[in-house]
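Hi again,

Forgot to attach this to my earlier email, sorry! This is the prediction with iron/sulfur cluster bound. I've pasted everything inline since the attachment limit keeps bouncing my files.
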Amino acid sequence: MYICYSKLKNINMSNKNKNKEEGKVIKQNWLKKPWIDTKYTNCNRKKFLLIFPPLYFSQLPQLGIHSLIGQLRGNGYDTSFINLNQVYKNSNQVFRNTEYPYKDLTYDAICKYIFSEKNYYLNFIKKIVCSIKKQQYDYIGISIGLDSQLIAGLTLAATIKKETKAHINIGGNYITRISDNIMKYPDFFDKYTHSISYGEGEISIIELAKYIENKIPIKQVPNLIYKKENKIIKNKMAKPVKLSEIKIPDFSDIDFSKSNKQLPLTVNRGCYWGKCSFCDMSYSLPFSVKKIDKVIEEIKIYKEKYNISNFYIVDESVVPEYLDKLCDAIIENNLNINISISMRFERISKTLLEKAYKAGIKNIAWGLESANPRILNLINKGINIQDIEKIIKYSAQAKIKNIIYVIFNFPTETYQEAMDTIIFLKKIYKYLFYISYGKFGLGRYSQIALNPQKYNIELVQEQKDFSHALGFKVLGEYKSKEEQDKIYKEIQKIQLLINENNKKYFMKST
Ligand code: SF4
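Structure tokens for the complex follow:
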């Protein structure tokens, strides 16, 4: 069964520019529309529903949820999908960050907000749940991949749990990161959900589906946390997913005539380097790659089924030798596509970058973080400045757009060390398309958080159960607020130089 949210989209898209008064009418009317298409319903089988809650800002479809839809449908399960994020946008709601004070991520504060009248999503979600209730689903999975989805996701879970008999399951990257903390609160499983899924979802969702069909006991479902006889049970983790053996993601619910024509792709999972001290991106994900012929087959399917030629490889970092073979295969198969990827500054030649451009790699995001050797060493980045300079130049000469990631305020980074990065960026700005910069944040599972003394920091904030970032204080010398502001001003100036340069090169050629 498929959700016809395109009907809903039509209503709201066409009314996008109307005045506030009309907006109110739309808000009331859209819920009366038959947005669940029941023609696919098969009454004899268990019914599954996956929901992607607001707020998610990217134009790129979220890969994780579409991969789960692919596994369920590919294994013959009657699966519906509601992109509630899209429904929320289309319903003329003000698409902004929730009013929830995100600074307080304690369990008590979150529960208090979710069950209060102040809850910004409450009315919207109550109406949605009225429609969902009529469909009598047996399983409802809610994916919370980002902190910005937490309040809507939990409000949805709590409301559905009260109103339906479905097995509620909450999963997603964000929930995985805080799942051990949630276990400290047994009433979470009374208020919001029957189970939590942690780690990779593709295998465990099929086992969970078998449990819903009464084919296996719940204790056999891997990656699952649930409450039994007042105890919280954490089932074992499944063996790592073999990316080449699972079903391909299913994007058939997306109306591509009205959305960004780009799809996410994955060629590996985890990070092949996995040693940067600040990073916990690959938390709980062992590194694995997809066979190249599978990637090619997947691209061909997407091209034919959805008429899509633009792809974004969303993996942390593509292995250079793998990229080489992938480019050969793309060229051989004459796929005629555009791809964006992320890479590390290592083992990359001029020839490889020229081949990459020929194969359709038009954008590469590179992780520089810092150009100061002491900081790079503390990060354990495993790259060196001479290589970076060469690679970024070759890449620009091959006509690839280079996006570079920089982190300021790494613990103990001095003003002078931050200025080393600025000086380096000024030196290479002609080869850059964009600088993405941000302030250091302490990931809960990063090496730094696990060994604070080694990095000269002290954890100052009480750990907030629903936060995957931690508060910290740097011991010893550090930058003043004025010095930090100067650094940001400098980087903005460099971006202006880059913009001018882009007008000369890329704007002409695109
Ligand atoms: S920062 Fe990037 S390269 Fe470093 S471990 Fe994390 S994902 Fe890998």
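The two ends are 41 Å apart (CA to CA). Residues 1-43 have pLDDT under 50 and may be disordered.

That should be everything now.

G.
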